Amino acid sequence: MFGAVRTSIPRTRRVFADRRFLSSTVSRFSADQHGHLPTTQSPITPHLEFFNSVVGGGKGIPTYRVLDGVGNPLDGAQLPELDEALARRMYENMTRLPIIDNLLYNVQRQGKIAFYMTCYGEEATIVGSAAALASDDEVLGQYREMGVLLWRGFSYDSVMNQCFGTHEDAATKGKQMPVHFGSRELHFHTISSPLATQIPQAAGVGYALKRDPLRRGKNCAVVYFGEGAASEGDFHAGMLLASTIPSPTLFICRNNGFAISTPASEQYHGDGIASRGPGYGVHTIRVDGNDVLAVYNAVREARRRCIEEGRAVLVEAMTYRVGHHSTSDDSFAYRPRQEVENRKRLDNPLARFRMFLEARGWWSAEKEDVYKAQVRDEVMKAMRRAEGLPRPPVEEMFNDVYGGEMPWNVKEQKEDLKRLLKKYGDVYEPWRTELRKYKGEGKEFLEGR
């Protein structure tokens, strides 16, 4: 019966009735002239208009700054709650980084370690962010975050043991490349070489923290990466995971201008990495990465939002990579030497913060000389000590490669090495020389103890 009645209404009258109902519904539930797309907050417009910025009027995303180039606070800038002890600790940690970098870069050139990466020019981004975190926040670094570990108490001996691969390298047990640090005690996950793999892992760590009753609302996962790593699919996977399954994950992008030899201008057409945050519904800020106080303020607020809202936050720190990408790179093949010298002179994060401290009477040239001499002496002692330590026992190379029981292929490799050492270890001089570098010289390994 109902079907007969419905079909008896002329089609034209039904269409007009549907239109009147839709029009009245839109006008009743919409605050805008043309309403919103159903089930969304997107207003409907009759104007054909494309957009190419997350900022109104097509303007670029602003960069947050506290100190100008000579260490004076900008008008209207809010300084963090900073006493002399905290300010000096931040500057001292920034100062330690180039001293360690200089030594280990030269040590690599002498052939004593295989590889090294410096963080020249990025000291403010690293230390400013480290100071804003809780000491037990979980950190997943990339390559230039040694300063985070030093801030948390990582010793010079630990730095050298990892880079030289000694038997005292607690984190990687001599298996990893230099500067691939890690520390379970300091909540710093071991660095891995493949680019950007730590980004989706950090989203998983953040989700685990959210599920842990003892750490929920207390800690966040913090992941560092460069703007080049943000070109990897792992960046988008990590951002998508942390935003759709909300987790307290703090993404810190060190935009230092270069992905190895590729300048940022050739890596993306949009407005940096910060422009991608709103697309994932993530709180985002761009900060002057050479202003340690701006980085400190931005990361502290970003962490607060992570913890209180249980959601991801993105910080893009704009800095400049003064050093070569690594000891395997000659950056003057793709950028002018004068460009680097100009950036060191005009936008030096250490000089900027030092002038801020000196203006308050918290630092001086005399203190600078004394502190640098002390650090150089301590770093040299740690380097010489590590240089004289043996590598881990030969057998250690087969342990902890995989979790759980050792798989058949690793067992097979282990037996093959035993067989070769028994056959050639005492008669082939290069092997005898190499075995002396290992703790136990391979004897324990061969004897099966």
Automatic annotation (TrEMBL):
Its EC number is 1.2.4.4. CDD domains: TPP_E1_PDC_ADC_BCADC. InterPro entries: Alpha-ketoacid_DH_E1_comp, DH_E1, THDP-binding. It is an enzyme of class 1 (oxidoreductase). It comes from the Eukaryota. GO terms for molecular function: branched-chain 2-oxo acid dehydrogenase activity. This is 2-oxoisovalerate dehydrogenase subunit alpha. It catalyses: N(6)-[(R)-lipoyl]-L-lysyl-[protein] + 3-methyl-2-oxobutanoate + H(+) = N(6)-[(R)-S(8)-2-methylpropanoyldihydrolipoyl]-L-lysyl-[protein] + CO2. Its cofactor is thiamine diphosphate. Pfam families: E1_dh. The branched-chain alpha-keto dehydrogenase complex catalyzes the overall conversion of alpha-keto acids to acyl-CoA and CO(2). It contains multiple copies of three enzymatic components: branched-chain alpha-keto acid decarboxylase (E1), lipoamide acyltransferase (E2) and lipoamide dehydrogenase (E3). SUPFAM superfamilies: Thiamin diphosphate-binding fold (THDP-binding). Gene3D superfamilies: 3.40.50.970. Residues 93-394 form the Dehydrogenase E1 component domain. GO terms for biological process: branched-chain amino acid catabolic process. Belongs to the BCKDHA family. Keywords: Oxidoreductase, Thiamine pyrophosphate.
